[in-house]
Design brief:
This protein is of the alpha+beta class. It has one domain: Ribosomal protein L7/L12, C-terminal domain/Adaptor protein ClpS (Ribosomal Protein L30, Chain: A). Strands 2-1-3 form a three-stranded antiparallel β-sheet. The relative contact order is 0.29.
Length: 89
Amino acid sequence: MPDEELEKLYRVIILNDDVTTFEFVIVSLVVVFQIEQSRAEAIAWETHTRGQAYVATLPLKEAQEKVFRVQYAARQQGYPLEFVIEPEE
């Protein structure tokens, strides 16, 4: 992948599902994405009510690494948590 692609900023979007718990989402956002507790709770609620929510804008490699860490932990606990990483416009 060209360096320019890695340097561009990407939006991380979390998607709702009927299995992953609020607690898991909140803890993951706080620990992995280093988001404040109150903001993580707001993201979890928005995800639940709207089907998805904005998490962060990051360089591609960092976004991929953080999403991988959360999804790996989610799978270990049987959660199907998914994210979308999209270019910032």
